[in-house]
């Protein structure tokens, strides 16, 4: 059984937009023709892929599975075409970069600006996520590059930088000369993400080693929401230096580094295996390395001096 790439392309667009009508307009294909293609695809696979709703369509569980594979296949084809056509001076094509949520606001904007200025023909997509989500996206080749945690990425990943961990509170929470040990920090009223997040895993490991319990008063997914909760006086949190550097500099939050011992986490660059990068991916990777070093010089983190790829 061979899947038709055209049907996969139509299915992916319908599933992504959640509408036959919108997909028809974007693809330039009549809606009845799309319906025939989807019916044929469902018959070929002997499974329902789309649930028809009063307002559009929603992918079934089987449809979600096919969608993740279809997106990876279509991206690979697009990159193969771009790699064949591109010229060394003007790289083109799509690049998908995943970044750990806690540092994405800091890292993404300068990367986007630099890429847009230097390589306007590269279509750069940046997605933020937790370390587990980023790993899965790299494994399925949805992301070409991912800045994620060392303990979750593949052993073949490249080291990027070390982040000191800080206790973060409202403005004025900590005296300028204050210091906190890791053991003391574990007893603070903490706002933390769920257990799938790397920083939570790291802190629970420290608590186990010290024979302490984490004092978690609230679980909140998302760094921006966590910072808002801190400003509202709902608790404190522990974040990497890069996630709180701007707020500490502007005086909207206060933060002190964990000491005795200093607690750090390592960020790495994860990439798909057995999948040669296109020229566009290589150029984005070079930009990423340069921005990381620049931000490291500004005090966001301690760089590990990655070696940029060569063409």
UniProtKB/TrEMBL annotation:
One of its GO terms (biological process) is regulation of DNA-templated transcription initiation. InterPro entries: LysR_HTH_N, LysR_subst-bd, WH-like_DNA-bd_sf, WH_DNA-bd_sf. Signal peptide: none annotated. One of its GO terms (molecular function) is DNA-binding transcription factor activity. Keywords: Activator, DNA-binding, Transcription, Transcription regulation. Pfam families: HTH_1 (PF00126), LysR_substrate (PF03466). Residues 1-60 form the HTH lysR-type domain. PROSITE patterns: HTH_LYSR. Belongs to the LysR transcriptional regulatory family. PANTHER family: NITROGEN ASSIMILATION REGULATORY PROTEIN NAC (PTHR30293:SF0), TRANSCRIPTIONAL REGULATORY PROTEIN NAC-RELATED (PTHR30293). This is LysR family nitrogen assimilation transcriptional regulator. It comes from Phyllobacterium myrsinacearum.
């Amino acid at each position: 059984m061979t899947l038709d790439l055209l049907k996969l392309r139509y299915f992916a667009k319908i599933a992504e937009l959640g509408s036959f009508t919108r997909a028809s307009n974007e693809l330039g294909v009549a809606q009845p023709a799309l319906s025939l293609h989807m019916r044929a695809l469902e018959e070929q696979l002997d499974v329902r892929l789309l649930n028809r709703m009063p307002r559009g369509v929603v992918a079934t569980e089987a449809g979600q599975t096919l969608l993740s594979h279809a997106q990876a296949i279509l991206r690979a084809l697009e990159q193969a075409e771009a790699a064949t056509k591109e010229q060394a001076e003007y790289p083109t094509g799509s690049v998908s970069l995943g970044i750990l949520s806690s540092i994405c606001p800091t890292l993404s904007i300068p990367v986007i600006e630099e890429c847009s200025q230097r390589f306007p023909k590269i279509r750069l997509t940046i997605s933020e996520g937790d370390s587990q989500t980023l790993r899965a996206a790299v494994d399925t080749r949805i992301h070409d590059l991912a800045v994620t945690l060392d303990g979750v990425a593949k052993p073949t990943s490249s080291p990027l930088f070390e982040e000191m961990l800080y206790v973060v509170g409202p403005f004025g929470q900590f005296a300028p000369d204050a210091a906190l040990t890791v053991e003391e920090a574990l007893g603070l009223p903490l706002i933390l993400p769920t257990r799938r997040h790397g920083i939570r895993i790291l802190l629970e490991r420290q608590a186990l080693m010290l024979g302490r319990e984490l004092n978690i008063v609230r679980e909140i997914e998302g760094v921006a929401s966590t910072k808002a909760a801190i400003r509202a006086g709902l608790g404190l949190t522990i974040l990497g230096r890069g996630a709180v550097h701007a707020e500490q500099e502007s005086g909207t939050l206060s933060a002190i580094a964990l000491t005795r011992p200093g607690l750090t986490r390592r960020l790495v660059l994860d990439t798909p295996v057995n999948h040669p990068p296109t020229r566009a991916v290589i150029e984005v990777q070079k930009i990423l390395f340069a921005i990381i070093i620049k931000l490291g010089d500004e005090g966001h983190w301690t760089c590990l001096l990655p070696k940029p790829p060569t063409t």
